[in-house]
Amino acid sequence: MINRIEVSSKISNTQKIGVYTIKKDLNQNQLKKIASSLTNPVYQDFKINQPTLVKKFFWGIETGFLPGVTDNVASTVKEIIKDQLKIKFNENEGVFSSQLLLISEQLNEKDIIKISQGLINPLIQRVHFKTQKEYLKDKGMDRIVPQVKLTSANQVDEVDLNVSDEELTRIGKSGIKNKDGSTRGPLALDLSYIKTIKNYFQKLGRNPTDIELESIAQTWSEHCHHTIFADPIDEIKNGLFNNYIKRATVEIRKKKGKRDLCTSVFTDNSGGIKFDKDYIISHKVETHNSPSALDPFGGAITGIVGVNRDAIGFDMGAKPIVNYYGFCFADPNLKSLIFRDKEKKQSLLSPRRILDGVVAGVNSGSNCSGIPTPQGFLYFDNKYQGKPLVFVGTVGLIPKKSSAIKKARPGDYIVMVGGRVGQDGIHGATFSSEALSAGSPTGAVQIGDPITQKKLSDVIIKEARDQKLYNSITDNGAGGLSCSVAEMAKESNGVAVDLEKVPLKYPGLEPWKIWVSESQERMTLSVPKNKWKKFSELMKNRDVKATIIGEFNDSGHCVVNYHKKIIMDIDMKFLHDGLPVRRMKTVHIKNVFKEPVIPQLKNLNEVLLSMMQRLNITGFEFVSKQYDHEVQANSVIKPLQGKGKVNGETSVVKPIFDSPHAMAISQGLYPSYSEIDCYQMAGASIDTAIRNLVAAGVNIDKIALLDNFCWCSSNDPQRLYQLKKAAEACYDFAKIYETPFISGKDSMFNDFKGYDEKSNPIKISVPPTLLISSIGIIEDVLKTISIDVKFPSDLFYILGETKDELGGSEYFAMNNSVGNNVPKVNGLKNKKLYSAFYKASQNTSFCFP
Fold first, then answer.
1. Is 28 annotated in some ligand binding site?
2. Which residue segments constitute the domains of the chain, with CATH numbers given?
3. N or C: which terminal CB in the chain sees fewer CB atoms within 10 Å?
């Protein structure tokens, strides 16, 4: 039986109604108990299997999720019902939420269609409407149950690679063909990659199965394997990452010796540094750009809860203590529309809707997880209209006594904990390795469930970790089980998976989808057999799903079984290291912009007011106030400072109550410099990220960095040259400041290929963007420095020199110019200045801004 509960306000002219559709046989008393639990009796009322009526309305519009989309409200209601009535739901039963609007204005159908389209994102939501007459005749809206109904036969297909190069190219680009001629989605494999796969299976004397090809594509994707940073480029044989980023850190750590603050770099889910004698701090910043372009809320919430899992998966499990964000958008007032298809049926969301959705997504993910979010930034440029950049980060904390070398051992159980697997997130890794276009799969978008993840996080961090119930742990992110299990299998050198044991959201999911699905709130652990019983009981007591899905071994192969039949058997070395090396070449074409002629300024007050109104200078208090920064009670320097509530560029937290130590985070980002000089752009980003921490009272010797490269058209030799120069600057300035890189991420194809309002083909590429995040340790929290002026008689000092370097500045942009003279960082001079400032700041007779 399908039941419907509508919860509305007792105020007669309110038309927004919460709807809960329950597919389960329940009696009237049970339904009343449920409805009462969902209703605030002071100002709300409810109807059970009856329509809500108001005195005056002309239209009813109902919105809800499409089948398979995560519905967090419905999940919570389902838990309420189970707890209250002490009942269970079978796989064919469920709860679904929706919103009903009763429109009191007398509008025509054309207007209602426009309103309906504005209320939803058609990639994840449904909408239907009725006139008042239809509503009354039908006794309300239809009872819709958006359940997934799959008709596939759970079969595994062979993929014939003995075809022409043209067909191989098509497979690599568009994916495996279904029997009806449609394709499954991008594999992001170029011809050299797919030929290498073809040769491997020819030597085995067989074709690959669909799950094997999908798994290799995920593992070799730019998103997961970072091939552009790894492969040779020009004279650099060992790649940009090894030659610049990693080498800088190795040399800095060696030079510092006993002063080295790093504990883990580049090998774990996050980077780690020493906090004090008893604790380690981890930090990781991720991007979630492509999903956020399609579904801003889902992309952002999935991003933030995903990077939370990078903290939980650091070492043996770190507690997330701080969240971080950074958003690059087009002007939210931009009115022009762009489309993914020539027929203009697939409109990209407006910059305003993307901004609102992303902000709300991080809000929901952070606040519901009980993690403070004190620091972040917003940056605006219309080149981000095609694909926004969504940076999300998490700082974690783990006691040194809980730290250990994690390693999956042969004989350990493979245990998946957390949420179930569905179709959401299919091809997320490969989709993010390409430009956004009409062929981008809508199924690559997920919506995170922070409540489910909070239960998972707490039981891991607060109990299972310190009881030493597992040997290794990692996140289920991009690529799902395909990535997490195969990555952990490198620790033991082999794995055997029983795929039919994976818990599913609904029956009928094809094996390859189970393997690569990126359904959220999942971790993979290696649990010794003699600890499984205790681990299992603990998870059950905390209402966290834990399932054995196979065993780690030392066979040298990644083997996946499905109902006792081998459907995947790939050599571990080939899976992880078999991809061909591509030698990249760069081309240097210097961009020269017209140098603006700015007249002598007569009224600096007007200029100042105009500058303060610019999107990249004005505050974003409206974001900071939405994000809880006081939860966990660790804030020292808060996101808004002074009487004017000014957004600070550095936040400080004190995670251990009885320790004088504090931790500071900040960032630097200058995409407006990129088209002029990417070397100086990177230098300015590093310098700013460090300077912001020094200004808050951090010793430059206690700072570490993270790099996030968000590039565009990264197969273009000119863009590769810019990338090379930015990476070179990372090495040079990190070495000068002796600030090691501990973690990073790259997203290399932030381009949009589509059509404008006149159906003309367009390509929009983000400016080459490098976010440098900084983290530092303050040994005495009482010497932390905030930006607000302390006394009326305080003097202002400018440290450093001001030069004729306005290229890429906001002032030039305000005058519709770019210029050529970007600021050039003098690292050696600045380091002396920052060290001197820090020494002065330790003298409490001084007061600093």
1. no
2. 2-137 (no CATH), 604-841 (3.30.1330.10)
3. N
